[in-house]
TrEMBL record:
The keyword Oxidoreductase applies. Belongs to the oxygen-dependent FAD-linked oxidoreductase family. This is FAD-binding PCMH-type domain-containing protein. It comes from the Eukaryota. Residues 70-240 form the FAD-binding PCMH-type domain. Pfam families: FAD_binding_4. PROSITE patterns: FAD_PCMH. Coiled coil: none annotated. The keyword Acetylation does not apply. Keywords: FAD, Flavoprotein, Oxidoreductase, Signal. Residues 1-26 form the signal peptide. The lineage of its organism: Eukaryota, Fungi, Dikarya, Ascomycota, Pezizomycotina. InterPro entries: FAD-bd_PCMH, FAD-bd_PCMH-like_sf, FAD-bd_PCMH_sub2, FAD-linked_Oxidoreductase, Oxid_FAD_bind_N. It comes from Aspergillus pseudoustus. PANTHER family: BINDING OXIDOREDUCTASE, PUTATIVE (AFU_ORTHOLOGUE AFUA_1G17690)-RELATED, FAD-BINDING PCMH-TYPE DOMAIN-CONTAINING PROTEIN-RELATED.
Length: 499
């Protein structure tokens, strides 16, 4: 009965935070609802509940997150062992009207999207099942993409998922999902055959093309916390026993040519493309004031060097080419947890080398405003959306919520890290001001797209504003049908929400 002592301490802390001077009755009501939920969870899932001060609390509330800003202080944490226990937890929390968050891989860096202060955290840590079938793989939401690639490697197959080692499966898949092979197989969302979902009232459903097809569609890019908790995904897999890889570096003088090569990649429109894609970044060295670019490229099959990156190879200052497998490739690129504070912000343009270079130059110039920020690590990222990658979703009979045209686009992104919490607001204001000013210029030039990718966006950005209005209206109808009590709107408020 040790949890009763912990619950008593939480009760005192929560009620103390809800004094009249800090917001009065609403705060007091919320605090009581959280106490209600923690007490119910302690009764129905006594082996799964964790309180502050418990042995695993820091692991679940802090160490499981990539961005240091995401380390919050939930009042209690429930770590279910199964989908049934997730359903029990959601039902208990919603019956108390308690605020909550859900964490899968913990990589999403929109603060509050997967953790919570003074509420309940559902940690999906133990839902780490994986089962390889002939041409699919069944995965739990606790897995990283490296876990998936490792499970598939003995079978010579690959799933369409994250490009770096520690990115989680559910977050990336539910917001759309970039992979090296998007140009041939579409995005991660286009390669999901089914979702097991716990709804806001604790009901469990399996959404497929033929069962709950409206929810199936809505989960293809609609975000992870608008409809329910996904407890299992079935993903299509493809033969890829070997991949050809390249790691390239580029001097500052080659950056314009590098960005032109990125735009060229976006314009490729073969009816039968070779699967190939990249991570393309430009970094600024705060100490030296010098920028340099880097390419991580992967191509299906054996080609050493991989010929789909010839435009880059001709101007790079350094290259390492190899033939390997997706597991070993992804295993090289760790994104350490709890090392930095990370802010994303992005907009989208039609693929145009001159415009992209101008954006890079404006980004570099704007850094003068924040060079005194401790631990500053600025990166300019360019992600490719090719006509062929969009065509997959448009032609598969289901579609996805993005509704993009089949035209070459570039997501240009600021990815910025820093050290201290005192600079959080300043860095957000800087990114927001510069990104929106540049986007306004691009709109006047007629080269802007309103599409926003949740995975690269800032927390102030409206990820649904750039989607077709008819798709947003359909999403809201699906939300009303599957979450009529608006549990995932009222109580799970973090992340990109349908409103």
């Amino acid at each position: 009965m040790g949890y009763l002592t912990q619950l008593g301490a939480i009760t005192t802390a929560l009620l103390a935070s809800a004094t009249p001077s800090s917001g009065a009755s609403a705060s007091s009501s919320t605090a009581k609802n959280v106490i209600c939920a923690c007490r119910k969870l302690s009764n129905v899932l006594p082996k799964d509940i964790i309180y502050p001060g418990s042995a695993n609390y820091t692991d679940e509330a802090t160490d499981s997150y990539w961005d240091k800003r995401a380390a919050l202080a939930p009042s209690c944490i429930v770590v279910p062992n199964s989908a049934d226990e997730v359903a029990t937890a959601v039902e208990a929390i919603s019956s108390c009207n308690a605020p909550f968050a859900v964490r899968g891989g913990g990589h999403m860096n929109v603060v509050g999207s997967n953790n919570i202060n003074n509420g309940v955290l559902i940690g999906l840590t133990k839902l780490n099942q994986v089962k390889v079938n002939a041409d699919t793989v069944e995965v739990g939401p606790a897995l990283t993409w490296y876990d998936v690639y490792a499970a598939l490697e003995p079978y010579g197959r690959v799933a369409i998922g994250g490009r770096l080692k520690t990115i989680g499966v559910p977050g990336l898949t539910l917001i759309g999902g970039y992979h090296y092979f998007n140009n041939k197989y579409g995005f991660a969302m286009d390669n999901v055959d089914s979702y097991d979902v716990v709804l806001g009232n604790g009901t469990q459903v399996t959404a497929t093309r033929s069962s709950h097809p409206d929810l199936f569609w809505a989960l293809k890019g609609g975000g992870g916390n608008n409809f329910g908790v996904v407890t299992k995904l079935v993903l299509r897999t493809y033969p890829a026993p070997q991949v050809s890889t390249t790691i390239q570096a580029f001097n500052e003088s080659a950056v314009p040519g590098f960005l032109a090569a990125v735009c060229d990649a976006a314009k490729l429109n073969s009816p039968d493309p070779i699967a190939a894609g990249m991570v393309a970044t430009v970094s600024y060295n705060v100490s030296s004031g010098v920028t340099s670019a880097s390419l991580l490229g992967v191509q299906e099959g054996v080609s050493n060097p991989p010929d789909q990156f010839a435009n880059f190879s001709s101007i790079s200052s350094f290259a390492i080419n190899n033939v390997t497998n997706m597991k070993d490739w992804a295993g090289q690129f760790e994104t350490p947890k709890q090392q930095f504070r990370i802010q994303f912000a992005h907009r989208t343009i039609k693929a145009d080398a001159a415009v992209l270079t101008s954006l890079y130059e404006s980004w570099k110039e704007s850094l003068s405003e924040v060079l005194d920020v401790e631990g500053l690590g600025p990166t300019f990222v360019a992600n490719v959306i090719s006509p062929t990658s969009v065509r997959v979703g448009n032609n598969n009979g289901v579609g996805n919520i993005w509704g993009l045209p089949e035209e070459p686009l570039i997501i240009w992104q600021f990815s910025t890290s820093w050290s201290l919490a005192r600079d959080d607001r300043r860095m957000q204001n800087w990114a927001r001001t510069v990104v929106e000013r540049l986007h306004a210029q691009n709109k006047r030039k007629g080269v802007a797209s309103e599409y926003i990718y949740m995975g690269d966006a800032g927390d102030w950005q409206d990820a649904f504003a750039g989607m077709p209005k008819k798709n947003v209206a359909r999403l809201k109808r699906v939300q009303a049908a599957y979450d009529p009590e608006r549990v995932f709107t009222r109580l799970s408020t973090g992340g990109f929400k349908l409103t």
